[in-house]
Every structure is written in C-alpha cells, then in structure tokens.
Amino acid sequence: MATRAAIKGEAARLRQLFENAGGVPVETDVLQPADTLLDLYGEDIRARAYVTSDALRGEQMLRPDFTVPVVQMHMADGAEPARYTYSGAVFRRQEDDTRRANEYQQVGYEVFDRTDPAGADAEVFALFHKALDGLNLRAATGDIGILMAAVAGLKTTQRRQAALARHIWRPTRFRALMERFSGQTDVPESRQKLLACDDPWANSGAMIGLRSRAEIDQRIAGLREDAQAAPLSMEEVSLIDAILQVRAKTPKALEHLKEISADLPAIRPAVARFEQRAEALDDRGIDVEALDFAASYGRTHMEYYDGFVFGFYAENHPEMPPVATGGRYDALTRMLGDGAEIPAVGGVIRPDLVLELGAGA
User: pLDDT tens for residues 75-85?
Assistant: First the structure.
C-alpha cells in the first residue's frame, strides 16, 4: 500500500497535468453545509457521509466530493469559460466493506463552457485517458441524458414523468414504477383503501411527524390523480427497455439508438449529441470503434450527472473501485446557480489506485 506522502505526490503530478491543460487550481472547505447536499441527494446521503453540527453553522458534512462546492464557487463568481483543477481528501462512510477506504484523495478537472458541449465532453475524457495511459484500464461510457429524454417523452402525466425522472438513479425503484404505471402490478391494498375513503382524516389520531396536514392532503390528491391516469402503453415500456439494453461498442450502440429513436422521437436530440461527442472523441485520437457504451451505465452511482458519463476500471482487479469517473452535470449548475446555468463536465481520479496499479505493472 502506498504511503500518504506517495499518494500526495501522485496527486500533485496529476494536478499538474490538469493545470497544463488549462485548469486553474482551486480549494474547497472540508466541512460542507449539509442542507445543500440533502437538497440534492435527499436523506439517502446520510448513509454514506459523515455528519456533524455546531451551534452557529448547523448541520455539516465532511466533504463527500468536490463537484458540488466547485459548482457553487463557479456559479457565485466564476468567469466564462472556465477550467478548474483541485486535489484533496474526500470522506465516505463504509458500512458493508471494511476494505474500502473511508478517506481518500481525489484529483479533479472541471470545464464550464457553453460554446461546444460535445467538444468539452471529448476534452475531459481524452485528458483522463491520457493521464491514465499505461495502466491497462477499460473505459466505460454511457449517457444518462438519453434515458432522461425518453422519460420526458412518455405519453403520461407530468407527475408520473417526475417520479420516474427522480428515480432514474435507483433502478429497482424505477422498474417498480414502470410496472405500476403500465398496469403490470396492482396498486398496494393500503393505498387502495386510502383512496376509497371519502374523508381520509375520519377517526384519525393526533398529528405526528414533520409533514403538515396540507402536505398530506396534497399527496393524497396526487395519488388520486395518478389512480385515474391511463396506463403507460406496453410499446413505450418496451422502448424504455430497449434503451436500457443497449450495450455495445460506440458505433454499434449509436446505430441501435438511432433505430429506437424512429419510434421514440423524444430521444433524437440526445442521440444527436451522442453522435457529435463520438465525432469529437475521434478528432482527439480516441478509438471510438473500441470504446464501450452502455445506456444504463452510471445509474447506480452518478446521481447528479444528466448526460455523458464515463469511468475507468482495472478489469484484472474486480474488487477495486473505479480509478476515475466523470460526466456532464448541466442540471446541477441550474440547481446551484440561483437562476443561472452553464453546461459543465468534469471528472476525478484516485491517485492511490493509480499508484497501486502502477506498482503492479
């Protein structure tokens, strides 16, 4: 195992590569306001973050990643276009696997540029590909934006579209919603009884919990609206399934998605962006003929990404986490920009894993 000093030295080497590419070095606080992260990820983040508090600043979290604070910094006073690099420790609670580190170094590179999103995607991926050259890693790519576009194009209520979009990163829950909205599974009996009541508050006890009566009434009204909505067609369900099953080298995957878009026009702009990105990658010397693409990639661990996603993996070490990950997060800039937004893409590398793999080469 590499020493802390060696890891910091490798982090400095990687950050210098990113500085040479135009990244401006930035620093972020180790303690981050919990409310921002909870708004983005929901209460689920508590299971993998270290939470503390003080009387003046309220609830805080040890930095789980750099992207959120870097986006906040840029949206507050960053110039356009902008490129940043950083390095430092991040913290993740580990409850299931003691072999995985709960504190480790990350080195990152972020691009904020609205002129050429496909070119920026290719720039970041190609830079990481170069930084990891010689480690015999497999590159995986995907595009969350295609599935998001498909959900937005479904012929159903906005409430159902929003529910599906919210759970894109939770495949099991997403599948359950698709089956319920298409009538393949029954509405739970407890919900049926609730919706059948003329007055759900009849014989109710004292109010407990944090939700107000108005919020509960709004939720019940939404459930009643959903119960009256027509089911999703099985054709649309099949098209969603077809997208999720696309897994091939980039040219073949693009071909499959173009075929699907003939029956699902809502994804055509996202597929066109995929094609533009493939051309930009080719222009930067990436062998797209050999580049893996999976439409479902990134759905379990990349919650704020909404477009291109990528990762680099050591296939000879299946127990090892990804050496690098990244992707596009335009929506995050909108959420943190107080009305402003800018296309953005970036990624992070773990220098400890780079050293471990290099030592075994």
Answer: 998 888 999 99
Half-sphere exposure of 161 (CA within 13 A, CB side): 13
* Mean pLDDT over the full length of the chain: 88
Q: Is the pLDDT of residue 209 over 70?
A: no
Q: Which two tokens stand for residue 72?
A: 């906040």
What residues contact residue 51 under an 8 Å CB cut-off, 6+ apart? 34, 59, 60, 61
Top pLDDT among 322 and 101 is at 322
**pLDDT digit string (tens) for 240-290?**
999 999 999 999 999 999 999 999 999 999 999 999 999 999 999 999 999
Query: How far apart (Å, rounded) are the C-alpha atoms in residues 145 and 90?
Result: 27
pTM: 0.88
Best CATH choice for the domain 1-135+343-361 from the list 3.40.50.2300, 3.40.50.300, 3.40.640.10, 3.30.930.10: 3.30.930.10
Sheet with 308-313, strands from edge to edge, namely: 24-25, 82-91, 103-112, 344-349, 324-328, 308-313, 138-143, 292-294, 247-249
Q: What is the pLDDT of residue 92?
A: 84
Q: What is the DSSP letter of 187?
A: P
DSSP 330: H
d(CA 170, CA 165): 10
Q: Chain centroid to CA 325: how far? A: 10
Amino acid identity, position 61: M
Q: Give kind and range of the element (H or E) at residue 36.
A: helix 34-41
Q: How far is CA 100 from CA 37, 96, 140, in A?
A: 22, 9, 21
- Break the chain into its structural domains and give their ranges: 1-135+343-361, 155-236
Residue environment code for 319-335, b if the CB has 16+ CB neighbours within 10 A, otherwise e: ebbbbbbbbbbbbbbbb
Q: Is the dihedral of CA 80, 81, 86, 91 positive or negative?
A: positive
pLDDT at 335: 87
pLDDT for position 38: 75
Cα(257)–Cα(247) distance, integer angstroms: 10
